[in-house]
Amino acid sequence: MKDLIILGSTGSIGTQALEVAKKLNINITGLAAGKNYKLLEKQAREFKPKSVAMFDTEAANKLKIALADTDIAVFGGKNGVNQVATGEGDTVLCSIVGIAGLESTLMAIDAGKDIALANKETLVTGGDLVKKRIKEKNVKLLPVDSEHSAIFQSLQGVPENSLNKILLTASGGPFFGKKAEDLKNVTVADALNHPNWSMGNKITIDSATLMNKGLEVIEAVHLFDVSPNQIEILVHKQSILHSAVELSDGAVIAQLGTPDMRLPIQYAFTYPDRGIKFEQLSLSQIGSLTFEKPDFDTFKCLPACIEAINRGGLSPAMVNGANEEAVSLFLNEKIRFLQIGELVEQTLQFAPDKKDFTLEDVYNADALARETVRKLVKG
């Protein structure tokens, strides 16, 4: 990698990616974010990219004033983010949260960029579109999610057609072992209290509902060309074994490490080489690793996602849109925690039966899902 563009630079993944890039002496040519213009200004002054963008146009105007004494080009809005995504640089880290990252990822692919993908919703909502463009443009698609990076790393050197099953691990979030009765009065603060990982609000809630794992099942289907029934989910509360693969002869290969997103970020940047060492794993200090089955009855988002990818077409976009809307309502204390899963499950039933779809179809399905959630909440 020579030049890196980071979309979502002020988020959890983006800030850690900049830390990794600094240690590896990677040149940053573009940065884009949502509306935290003060942090983006600080990043721009340190890394001196050629261009920056803010999705929020008001924030972009403030950033333009703040960076007026520099030669850095400042863009605003969706088109501005796309402009940065297609600018000078050979790799784009896509870490914009939610479906908002889909179009800029497709634009970057069309511009011939390799993609380091930290935005799982891109493959969830538009997986078929992304894979087709990746093949046409002959660019790399490198997973950054810790689980998918672990699967990718475990498959290095494995003969073609030897993959039998993916063992996808889940931390279980803060509520593992709880039943619906125990979760009736969960607060936003409770749901944001993840035991192992420090992440943004949306993904932390997704971890608590197991929606995050459902999205990762869909993503894994696209990334590794497997069927949903070739993916086994294991709750692994220690978050040390990040995922594994079972091969045709019964051998299981896994990637283990401390819960540190910098390692999978770095591997996407240095692939196929290894980078610098981060925190060393001591299995003797950990002592034991445990694996349990998830609770499909209590955490309804997970089976809804599996049903969606089995249906295919626009169904994954529907469950994703429903979840984004429901999580937003929960964070704003408009609905209860358990309603997130119920709304995702109910909204799936309204998915259009359309196997071949366009980007416009994806956005229409997303809008339909959000509207459906709002209607269901209002009753």
Can you walk me through this structure?
By secondary structure, this protein is α/β, with parallel strands linked by helices. Helices cover 47% and strands 15% of the residues. The chain is built from 16 helices and eleven strands. The strands form two sheets. Strands 4-3-2-1-5-6-7 form a seven-stranded parallel beta sheet, with helices on both faces. β2, α2 and β3 form a beta-alpha-beta unit. The longest helix has 20 residues, at 359-378. The protein is globular and about 55 Å long. It starts with a strand and ends with a helix. The mean pLDDT is 95.
Given as residue ranges, the uncertain stretches (5+ residues, pLDDT < 50) are none
Order of helices and strands: EHEHEHEHEHEHEHEHHHEEEHHHHHH
Structural class: alpha/beta
State the total count of DSSP E strands. Answer: 11
Rough outline: globular
Distance between the termini: 52 Å
- In this structure, how is the largest beta sheet organized? 7 strands, parallel
Helix content: 40-55%
Percent strand equals: 5-15%
Quickly count the helices. Answer: 16
- Strand ordering within the main sheet: 4-3-2-1-5-6-7
> What is the average of the pLDDT values?
95
Radius of gyration: 20 Å
What's a concise summary of this model?
It contains 16 helices and eleven strands. It has helices at 12-24, 37-47, 57-66, 77-85, 102-110, 120-137, 146-154, 188-191, 201-209, 211-224, 262-270, 283-286, 301-311, 315-331, 337-348, 359-378; strands at residues 3-7, 27-33, 51-54, 73-76, 91-94, 114-117, 141-143, 163-170, 231-235, 241-247, 252-256.
